[in-house]
Design brief:
Number of strands: 8
Structural class: mainly beta
CATH class: Mainly Beta
Number of domains: 1
Helix content: 10-25%
CATH superfamily: Quinohemoprotein amine dehydrogenase alpha subunit, domain 2
Strand order of the largest sheet: 1-2-3-4-5-6-7-8
Number of helices: 1
Strand content: over 45%
Shape: globular
Order of helices and strands: EEEEEEEEH
CATH topology: Lipocalin
Length: 126
């Protein structure tokens, strides 16, 4: 069984628009719990789910907005550092998601990526 405890940096796509997120997962046997912080107005959410072999499924619920629970499922790679799968909300909306196991400070990694992109964008606006 995969061990997913740790920090993860990921993206989900809704209507083809990507949203980044940071997740902190805690796994005990095959029970999975954790917190997610979206880089959007939705903000913080909690999750509860399970891991069976390399399959993962969980339900995400936002703390700041009243919305329907979001159901995620996915597959963990053999190295246990990448997950990809699908999400859906009451079978009305759905999309893809993925996450990579992060280092000690995911926000620092995200800021580095953003800084690398800013010079490229600034250089193209002459």
């Amino acid at each position: 069984m995969a061990d997913l405890t740790g920090t993860w940096l990921g993206t989900y796509w809704q209507s083809e628009i990507p949203t980044r997120f940071e997740a902190t997962l805690l796994q005990s046997s095959n029970t999975l719990t954790g917190n997610i912080l979206d880089d959007s107005e939705s903000g913080e959410a909690t999750l509860i789910g399970e891991v069976i072999g390399r399959r993962i499924q969980f339900t995400k619920r936002y703390l700041t907005i009243s919305s329907a629970p979001i159901h995620y499922s996915g597959t963990v790679n053999e190295e246990e550092d990448f997950i990809q799968g699908d999400w859906n909300i009451q079978n009305n909306e759905s999309g893809k998601w993925e996450a990579r196991r992060g280092g000690d400070n995911l926000m620092m990694e995200l800021q580095k990526l953003q800084q690398q992109q800013i010079p490229a964008l600034a250089g193209g606006r002459r």
